[in-house]
């Protein structure tokens, strides 16, 4: 427990470092750092209906982040969540297009399955390359993100193009309203239930199943797993597939819920934020849920800032990026700081 | 034909400078995924610097200063705080993309592109039709060859490669891997500033949000595809740039009959293929631990 407490405190110290760096950037750009951070806190957590906004952005992020956490736990550095999210949304959109006219009770589950299969497929090939040929998954999943973005541009400006669409961003035809699982506010029983079911299932998988224990062990000590006679390639491939399927599920939710369509380059920071959430939470499922609400709040502040207080939305990107810069740090200095702190309190 | 060559040189030069920065980092054992961020900082600082001071040189110096500072920050986080280099690099990229967007809005009061009246110095009429090329294009072959000689023939270059391949061996002959990584990343910062400056002021004279559009990642792909070798990686970057220019030509000629995204996928597909083949050839350490099980099961 005290080890876990230390890791939480360490995360918080580095988040603090990150905020200091952000303040320096805001200040040198000619804004008052205090005012910017204040507005962000207000937009993210303090204004009325902030909780609903946090959930709207946090729930899909949570689903993707839990998947990322599972592949990280198993020792695979799958940074392709963004691509898996896109391919999932594309697969769901194609499925919805193909089944247009069928009753929603069939179409919605079919789209969920298609989206998860799409995301899983986009994690399958890097997983196979990694496991069969030792091809580094960091590169393949990163390149996969760019390929998925290009594919998204292709389908939204080609096969699925909305001919009435205007503006610079190519979009698919809007999903028929009877198939939508939420309005544009994005918090509905279907979405909340999906996130809850995912969270509980993944918590059970990680903490109460042989798979979770072995996968966690495989990530920390691959040798141990071999001595136990476990088929490590099965564990590895399963963790790739789960993380891909969950990112694809999040893409499906965004498509069938708040967005109602897919657009080229939509939600470009989703995968990166999900990776960040998994790292901040130290890959624990419960930690991921808490961190998702925090980063969901920040994401909602990105819409609040320019409209309500006239600040650039990129302030949120800066905060996320600065947290990413520091979150994996393991500093002897900070550990010493934490030890000193504990002694003072105890 | 001249026009085609000019187009290729212009689109490849920024990519090549950034690729060389990636090569330097790669050789010391750091996968620099912050290249995209460094490049856009270079582009933005050059343009804002020109807008403020009116002088290209001062703008470029500002870019060099900021890119080196950002590289040193990355070094500090990776080497001193022992952060994961992939995540820290992606963080730096996010910081660059977000920070420049923020700076432009702070400076201009809106998201419009910043245009300036002067750009990088040009070669001039001595070169005829090629006189429109900037000095960065002319210097590029010199920098590529210079880096190749540095890595291949100098004591420092060998130390640099040694600390990527076997840091313990490097340390045992008195080289300090951490210090060498600092020098390599800082030098990479200068190269990224040059790449960004060429992108923003080589032929255009403006900066727009997110104008690097993934070029930093493409440079990283070129580093991987070129196996970290300065000349091979340069050719990889050149190849990606040619594919990009051809993609535009194909679209102009055939319109929407051919999906124009197809050629854009080339750099990424090539990199996946490259890293797969090199993994097979080297039979990488990671592969050994996992493929063993397959024969067991």
Short structural description:
The complex is a heterodimer of chains A (346) and B (297). Chain A is mainly α and 346 residues long. Helices cover 76% and strands 0% of the residues of chain A.
Question: What's the helix and strand layout?
Answer:
The complex is a heterodimer of chains A (346) and B (297).
Chain A: H1 2-28, H2 33-46, H3 50-73, H4 81-98, H5 104-133, H6 137-157, H7 189-208, H8 210-220, H9 222-227, H10 232-259, H11 270-280, H12 285-309, H13 314-327, H14 332-345
Chain B: H1 2-27, H2 35-53, H3 56-80, H4 85-108, E1 114-115, H5 135-153, H6 155-165, H7 167-172, H8 177-201, E2 206-207, H9 215-225, H10 230-254, H11 261-264, H12 266-282, H13 285-296
Antiparallel strand pairs in B: 1-2
Describe the structure.
The complex is a heterodimer of chains A (346) and B (297). In chain A, α4 (81-98) packs across α10 and α11 (270-280) packs across α13. Chain A folds into two domains: 1-31 and 311-346, no CATH class; 53-309, Orthogonal Bundle (ABC transporter involved in vitamin B12 uptake, BtuC), CATH 1.10.3470. Chain A is 76% helix and 0% strand. The two termini of chain A are 15 Å apart. Chain A has helices spanning 2-28, 33-46, 50-73, 81-98, 104-133, 137-157, 189-208, 210-220, 222-227, 232-259, 270-280, 285-309, 314-327, 332-345. Chain B is mainly α and 297 residues long. Chain B has one domain (2-211). At the A-B interface, α1, α5, α6, α10 and α11 of A face α3, α4, α9, α12 and α13 of B.
Helix content of chain B: over 70%
**Overall 3D geometry of chain A?**
globular
Radius of gyration of chain B in whole Å, from Cα? 20 Å
Our count of domains of chain A comes out at 2
Q: Report the radius of gyration of chain A as a whole number of Å.
A: 21 Å
Q: For the record, what CATH class of the largest domain in chain A applies?
A: Mainly Alpha
The biggest beta sheet of chain B is recorded as: 2 strands, antiparallel
* Low-confidence spans of chain A: 341-346
Could you give the order of strands across the largest sheet of chain B?
1-2
* Largest interface, C-beta within 8 A: A-B, 57 and 59 residues
The count of domains of chain B is 1
SSE sequence of chain A, one letter per element: HHHHHHHHHHHHHH
The termini of chain A sit apart by 15 Å
Order of helices and strands of chain B: HHHHEHHHHEHHHHH
List how many beta strands of chain B DSSP finds. 2
Low-confidence stretches of chain B: 284-297
């Amino acid at each position: 427990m005290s080890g876990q407490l230390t890791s939480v405190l360490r995360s918080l110290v580095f988040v603090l470092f990150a905020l200091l760096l952000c303040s320096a950037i805001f200040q040198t750009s000619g804004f008052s750092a205090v005012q910017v951070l204040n507005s962000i806190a207000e937009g993210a957590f303090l204004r009325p209906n902030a909780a609903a906004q946090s959930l709207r952005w946090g729930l899909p992020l949570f689903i993707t982040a839990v998947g990322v956490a599972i592949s990280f736990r198993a020792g695979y550095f799958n940074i392709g969540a963004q691509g898996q999210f896109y391919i999932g949304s594309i697969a769901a959109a194609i499925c919805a297009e193909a089944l247009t006219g069928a009753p929603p009770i069939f179409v919605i589950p079919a789209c969920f399955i298609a989206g998860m299969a799409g995301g899983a497929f986009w994690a399958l090939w890097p997983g196979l390359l990694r496991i069969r040929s030792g091809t580094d998954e960091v590169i393949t999943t990163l390149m996969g993100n760019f390929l998925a973005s290009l594919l998204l541009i292709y389908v939204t400006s080609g096969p699925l193009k909305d001919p009435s669409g205007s503006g610079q961003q190519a979009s698919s035809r809007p999903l028929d309203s009877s198939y939508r699982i939420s309005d544009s506010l994005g918090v509905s029983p279907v979405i909340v239930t999906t996130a809850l079911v995912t969270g509980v299932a993944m918590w059970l998988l990680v903490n109460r199943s042989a798979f979770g224990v072995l996968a966690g062990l495989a990530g920390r000590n691959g040798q141990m797993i071999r001595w136990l006679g476990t088929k490590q390639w099965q564990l590895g491939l399963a963790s790739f597939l789960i993380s891909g399927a969950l990112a694809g599920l999040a893409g499906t939710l965004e498509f069938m819920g708040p967005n109602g369509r897919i657009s080229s380059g939509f939600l470009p920071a989703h995968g990166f934020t999900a990776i960040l959430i998994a790292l901040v939470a130290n890959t624990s499922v419960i930690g991921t849920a808490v961190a998702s609400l925090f980063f969901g709040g920040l994401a909602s502040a990105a819409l609040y800032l320019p409209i309500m207080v006239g600040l650039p939305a990129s302030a949120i990107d800066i905060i996320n990026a600065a947290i990413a810069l520091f979150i994996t740090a393991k500093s002897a200095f900070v550990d010493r700081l934490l030890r000193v702190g504990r002694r003072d309190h105890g | 034909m001249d026009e085609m060559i000019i187009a290729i040189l212009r689109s490849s030069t920024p990519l090549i400078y950034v690729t060389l920065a990636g090569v330097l980092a790669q050789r010391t054992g750091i996968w620099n995924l912050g290249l995209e961020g460094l490049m856009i900082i270079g582009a933005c600082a050059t343009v804002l610097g020109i807008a403020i001071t009116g002088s290209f040189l001062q703008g470029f110096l500002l870019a060099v200063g900021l890119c080196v500072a950002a590289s040193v920050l990355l070094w500090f986080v990776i080497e001193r705080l022992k952060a994961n280099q992939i995540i820290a690099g992606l963080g730096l990229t996010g910081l660059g993309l977000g920070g420049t967007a923020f700076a432009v809005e702070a400076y201009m009061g809106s998201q419009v592109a910043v245009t300036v009246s002067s750009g990088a110095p040009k070669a001039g009429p001595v070169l005829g039709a090629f006189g429109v090329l900037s000095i960065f294009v002319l210097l590029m072959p010199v920098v590529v060859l210079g880096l190749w000689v540095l890595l291949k023939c100098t004591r420092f270059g060998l130390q640099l490669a040694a600390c990527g391949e076997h840091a313990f061996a490097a340390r045992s002959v008195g080289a300090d891997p951490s210090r060498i990584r600092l020098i390599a990343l800082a030098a990479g910062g200068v190269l990224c500033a040059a790449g960004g400056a060429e992108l923003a002021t080589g032929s255009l004279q403006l900066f727009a949000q997110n104008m690097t559009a993934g070029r930093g990642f493409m440079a990283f792909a070129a580093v991987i595809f070129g196996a970290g070798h300065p000349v091979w990686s340069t050719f990889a970057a050149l190849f990606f740039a040619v594919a990009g220019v051809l993609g535009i030509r194909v679209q102009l000629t055939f319109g929407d009959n051919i999906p124009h995204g197809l050629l854009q996928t080339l750099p990424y597909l090539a990199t996946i293929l490259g890293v797969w083949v090199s993994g097979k050839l080297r039979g990488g350490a990671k592969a050994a631990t996992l493929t063993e099980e397959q024969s067991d099961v």
